[in-house]
């Protein structure tokens, strides 16, 4: 069964850091790009970051550029999101999502993780 | 404010056909595929339609997608109570060089 398992969320103070993980199973992980998508409480979906299947190319929304870093370890079938300088507006459920292709561009998100909640508050 | 515009709500009775619209521009819907996602209450989003009108395996043919110019629509026929969910359209945006989502439409089955 194709599955994504998100973890690493929690409560963090403004300015703090957190690392999210997403463990994949049931497919050839290195053949597909991956992304993180977030959803603030009661709000819609917002794409955050993407990474190619090889890990050689990374992409970020302007709202997180310079603060968040996406990476992947294809030997562990896991994608990460390192979040630094966190702000209250980063509070959201974070979902990892599998792309249709190895390239990030113009691809649907065909499999989603269950999400992990990040709360930024003092 | 989302780049793709959806009505915030829609409703219908069981068995009815409802449509949800999604309006964009040339840089997104006009030049790229449209995707639709269904988010049932308390769950993660699920891909419902890809490449404008294609259904992933397991999605009932009651769900259909279409695109014309810079707008797209999701149609649900034979409405069921289990279709009550939030629906999001999405597309790649050439200007932003990234994927964008609509604000979402909450579908209520009366």
Q: Outline of this structure?
A:
Chain A is an all-beta fold and 122 residues long. Chain A is built from no helices and eleven strands.
Word description of this protein:
The complex is a heterodimer of chains A (122) and B (110). Helices cover 0% and strands 50% of the residues of chain A. Chain A is built from no helices and 11 strands. Chain A has strands spanning 3-7, 10-12, 18-25, 34-39, 45-51, 58-60, 68-73, 78-83, 92-99, 109-112, 116-120. In chain A, strands 2, 4, 5, 6, 9, 10 and 11 form a 7-stranded mixed β-sheet that branches. In chain A, strands 1-3-8-7 form a 4-stranded antiparallel β-sheet, with no helix packed on it. Chain B has 110 residues and is mostly beta strands. Chain B has 1 helix and 9 strands, in the order E-E-H-E-E-E-E-E-E-E. Chain B has one helix at 26-30; strands spanning 9-12, 18-23, 34-39, 46-49, 63-68, 71-76, 85-93, 98-101, 105-109. In chain B, strands 1, 3, 4, 7, 8 and 9 form a 6-stranded mixed β-sheet that branches. The longest helix of chain B is centred in the N-terminal third of the chain and has 5 residues, at 26-30. Chains A and B meet through strand 5 and strand 10 of A and strand 7 and strand 8 of B.
């Amino acid at each position: 069964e194709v599955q994504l398992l998100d973890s690493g969320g929690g409560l963090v103070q403004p300015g703090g850091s957190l690392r999210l993980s997403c463990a994949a199973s049931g497919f050839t992980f290195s053949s597909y790009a991956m992304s993180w998508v977030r959803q603030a409480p009661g709000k819609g979906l917002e794409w955050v970051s993407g990474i190619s299947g090889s890990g050689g190319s990374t992409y970020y929304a302007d709202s997180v550029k310079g603060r968040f870093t996406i990476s992947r370890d294809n030997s562990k079938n896991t994608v990460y999101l390192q979040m630094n300088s966190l702000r209250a507006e980063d509070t959201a459920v974070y979902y990892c999502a599998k792309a249709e292709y190895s390239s990030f561009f113009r691809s649907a998100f065909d499999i989603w993780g269950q999400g992990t909640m990040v709360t930024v508050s003092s | 404010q989302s780049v793709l515009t959806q009505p915030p709500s829609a409703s219908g009775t069981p068995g009815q056909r409802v449509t949800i619209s999604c309006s964009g521009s040339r840089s997104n819907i006009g030049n790229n595929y449209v995707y639709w996602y269904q988010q049932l209450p308390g769950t993660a989003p699920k891909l419902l339609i890809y490449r404008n009108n294609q259904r992933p395996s397991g999605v009932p043919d009651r769900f259909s997608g279409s695109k014309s110019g810079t707008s797209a629509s999701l149609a649900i026929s034979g409405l069921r109570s289990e279709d009550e969910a939030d629906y999001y359209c999405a597309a790649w945006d050439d200007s932003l060089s990234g994927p964008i989502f609509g604000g979402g439409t909450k579908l209520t089955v009366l």
